[in-house]
């Protein structure tokens, strides 16, 4: 068995320094906060889509998903089968509102619809949830470095934090997206090489592996049990997972900020279509690597690990050729840094746009806000570092991130649903709904035996129900303040407002506007794709 060699270390160092240099070069173009947070709204759709994919295939997925597959086969794909449905919903509803409003953060829209109180509460919840999850994102590559070098995990956490924060402060969202594009291909390459190595080494190759996996029930993914305590049933995935990913991609600033960097609403939607189509195959790829590792270690002995997050990194270091190991581990590092810098960039954006610029320093120069943004990035880097020390106790890293978010994101999605789909809801109802939604999730986790995937569903439904009912206690929002901010503004004068806002925000020609109207069919295509995925998973289970 090979070990991490000097050649691997050289490849690792050169690759990380190269990516850091590439990302830092974008810092020269960051003259305003619009450049820093939105890339001047000039990023092509395919790069945004791949950036979203790279975040999903970050160190968290690269490490966590094979451990999932090794432990439970394909059952956890149920967490992701809903993604095409979630993307269809976002394309048809939330994303156009954000883009037309020409906002920097998703929570600015909530202020226009409900008032400053709703914006502040929602933004604060995002900061808490994403700040904690970023600690897990930092822990993942630090774990890899610890496994590879034998260094203490606390030392590697600090080392990774210093590298990532330094790189993030310089790069801005443009560096985030373009370095993500590179990481995407490196990680796919690493996954492909790992699969080939396992197929070559396991006697009997793919046929033997599939037989072994089938006998162990690892290819069965579709569990149609109606028992709410079954953690990864189809219903938990389709219902609970839909709300999880609709909330994540639609209300989490680290994701929606990418969409807002595009040149037009049409390109924003295209980026989501690309993600909606590719995310499931990508997760199947990494889960399948876990199944391959299960067959590999059945042949070559127990991997002797205490933590499933160590499974794939140890295989890469011990089984892949010198130099290739270094490249793959470097890809994990760089992808983790890209995931971390996107989170830190979005945390900085919300901190400055939704708090600092609102309550501390109003009407300052753009140069001042850009400098403040970089200091905010440093602060959140320190915050994530502290939480990363405790991430080892949270279980598989990919599951830990989703569980943290499930306490907050359902309630946040609920308030956006109220904002877009209702006219009667007011600010008091919105704030009450958010609080009630979070309390309901806490109650479910404490007193009910229910899969954590339902947490976002519970939070969203309670948030919508309570928020709408409480709104009847207060005044009805004035019609002129709703213009262009809800889905049901059908009056001609309001449509003129919408058209004016859309043209001002996107500067589209009549032909481009007509082209965007054709995107109304895209959600239907994604729903059809979901049906195809379910059929394919059923057929895989028959092997």
UniProtKB/TrEMBL annotation:
Topology in membrane: Multi-pass membrane protein
Predominant location: membrane
Membrane spanning stretches: 6-24, 45-68, 80-99, 120-145, 157-178, 185-212, 232-251, 272-297, 317-337, 378-398, 404-421, 428-448, 454-473, 522-541
Listed Pfam families: SSF
Keywords: Cell membrane, Glycoprotein, Ion transport, Membrane, Sodium, Sodium transport, Transmembrane, Transmembrane helix, Transport
Catalytic activity: iodide(out) + 2 Na(+)(out) = iodide(in) + 2 Na(+)(in)
Cellular location(s): Cell membrane
PROSITE patterns: NA_SOLUT_SYMP_2, NA_SOLUT_SYMP_3
PANTHER family: INTEGRAL MEMBRANE TRANSPORT PROTEIN (PTHR42985:SF47), SODIUM-COUPLED MONOCARBOXYLATE TRANSPORTER (PTHR42985)
Family: Belongs to the sodium:solute symporter (SSF) (TC 2.A.21) family.
Name of this protein: SSS family transporter
Organism for this UniProt entry: Guptibacillus hwajinpoensis
């Amino acid at each position: 068995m090979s070990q991490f060699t000097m050649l691997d270390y050289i490849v690792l160092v050169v690759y990380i320094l190269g990516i850091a240099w590439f990302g830092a070069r974008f810092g020269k173009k960051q003259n305003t906060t619009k450049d820093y947070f939105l890339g001047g709204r000039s990023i092509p759709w395919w790069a945004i889509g791949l950036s979203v994919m790279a975040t999903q295939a970050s160190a968290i997925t690269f490490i966590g998903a094979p451990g999932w597959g090794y432990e439970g086969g394909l059952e956890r794909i149920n967490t992701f089968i809903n993604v095409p449905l979630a993307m269809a919903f976002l394309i048809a509803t939330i994303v156009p509102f954000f883009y037309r409003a020409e906002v920097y953060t998703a929570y600015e829209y909530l202020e226009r619809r409900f008032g400053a109180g709703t914006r502040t509460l929602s933004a604060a919840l995002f900061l808490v949830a994403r700040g904690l999850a970023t600690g897990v994102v930092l822990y993942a590559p630090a774990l890899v470095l610890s496994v590879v070098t034998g260094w203490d995990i606390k030392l590697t956490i600090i080392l990774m934090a210093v590298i990532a924060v330094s790189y993030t402060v310089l790069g801005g969202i443009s560096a985030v997206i373009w370095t993500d594009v590179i990481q995407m291909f490196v990680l796919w390459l690493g996954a492909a090489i790992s699969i080939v190595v396992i197929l070559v080494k396991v006697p009997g190759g793919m046929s033997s592996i599939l037989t072994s996996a089938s006998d162990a029930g690892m290819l069965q993914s579709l569990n149609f049990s109606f028992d709410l305590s079954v953690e990864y049933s189809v219903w938990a995935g389709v219902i609970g997972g839909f709300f999880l990913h609709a909330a994540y991609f639609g209300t989490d600033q680290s994701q929606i900020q990418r969409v807002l960097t595009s040149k037009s609403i049409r390109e924003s939607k295209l980026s989501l279509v690309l993600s909606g189509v590719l995310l499931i195959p990508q997760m199947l790829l990494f889960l399948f690597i876990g199944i391959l590792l299960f067959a590999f270690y059945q042949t070559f002995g127990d991997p002797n690990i205490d933590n499933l997050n160590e499974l794939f990194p140890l295989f890469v270091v011990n089984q892949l050729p010198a130099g290739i190991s270094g490249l793959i581990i470097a890809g994990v590092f760089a992808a983790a840094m890209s995931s971390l810098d996107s989170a830190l960039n979005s945390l900085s954006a919300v901190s400055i746009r939704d708090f600092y610029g609102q309550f501390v320093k109003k009407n300052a120069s753009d140069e001042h806000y850009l400098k403040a943004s970089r200091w905010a990035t440093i602060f959140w880097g320190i915050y994530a570092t502290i939480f990363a020390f405790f991430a080892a106790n949270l279980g598989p890293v990919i599951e830990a991130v989703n569980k943290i978010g499930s306490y907050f994101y359902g309630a946040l999605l609920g308030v956006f649903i109220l904002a877009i789909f209702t006219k009667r809801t007011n600010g008091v109802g919105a704030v009450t709904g958010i609080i009630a939604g979070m309390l309901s999730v806490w109650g479910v986790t404490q007193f009910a035996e229910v899969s954590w995937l339902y947490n976002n569903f519970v939070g969203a439904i309670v948030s919508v129900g309570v928020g709408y009912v409480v709104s009847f206690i207060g005044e009805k929002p004035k019609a002129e303040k709703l213009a262009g901010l809800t889905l049901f503004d059908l009056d001609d004068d309001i449509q003129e407002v919408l058209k004016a806002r859309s043209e001002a925000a996107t500067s589209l020609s009549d032909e481009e506007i007509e082209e965007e109207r054709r995107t109304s069919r895209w959600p239907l295509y994604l729903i059809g794709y979901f049906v195809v995925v379910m059929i394919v998973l059923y057929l895989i289970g028959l092997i």
